[in-house]
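Hi support team,

I'm opening this ticket because the web form for multi-chain structure prediction keeps timing out on my end. I have pasted the exact lines I submitted so you can reproduce it. The total is 229 residues across two entries, so I didn't expect it to be a heavy job. Is there a limit I'm missing, or should I split the entries? Thanks in advance, R.K.
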Amino acid sequence: NAGVTQTPKFRILKIGQSMTLQCTQDMNHNYMYWYRQDPGMGLKLIYYSVGAGITDKGEVPNGYNVSRSTTEDFPLRLELAAPSQTSVYFCASSYSMKPGQGLYEQYFGPGTRLTVT
Amino acid sequence: QKEVEQNSGPLSVPEGAIASLNCTYSDRGSQSFFWYRQYSGKSPELIMFIYSNGDKEDGRFTAQLNKASQYVSLLIRDSQPSDSATYLCAANSGGGADGLTFGKGTHLIIQP
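Hello R.K., no limit was hit. The queue was backed up. Here is the completed structure from your submission:
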């Protein structure tokens, strides 16, 4: 099992450019997430998905879009990149460890370090 | 606004001592709580989770939850230099699969 994989590892974008961050998991998890982590900060939820074809906004969705056409893939699209989107982006997937208890162990990918200049 | 608060540190602890990390949360609807360890430049990895009041032990780690005080803690016994990392506290509100709310993390330094 590769777990959660993300590409690219690093990327530099110019202001106004667009790009897609790729995320794939091979654990057959229904739930997938995108977080961003700014220096010295915790992770903030951008978007999440509870299954193929279903996505919803998290805490900081502005400037991003997602799609979930398969269980395995959950790409994050940045349109019109801005310096405020400079961050490390983590994709995660999870499963329910104990139904009804809100226990979803999240497995994180290695991250994509994005700089917008 | 759901918030999870942690002291950012750094928290410096001698090798072999007990490291105590604390976290408070604002949403009384939070059902489960997670401690993640994150080494510099790496992704978070799950250390412990807890959802019932009281203590939960796993090896050198003990998680403590007090829902009345909205307080979660992580104790690391016999601290090792390899425990030096940032520890993130996270809460899952409402019991759904709609992601975690993370604190900013506490930077722990174990002094040899």
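A quick check on our side: Chain A touches chain B at residues 30-31, 33, 35, 40-45, 48, 50, 56, 58-59, 90, 94, 96-98, 100-106, 108-111 (CB under 8 Å). Let us know if the file doesn't open in your viewer.
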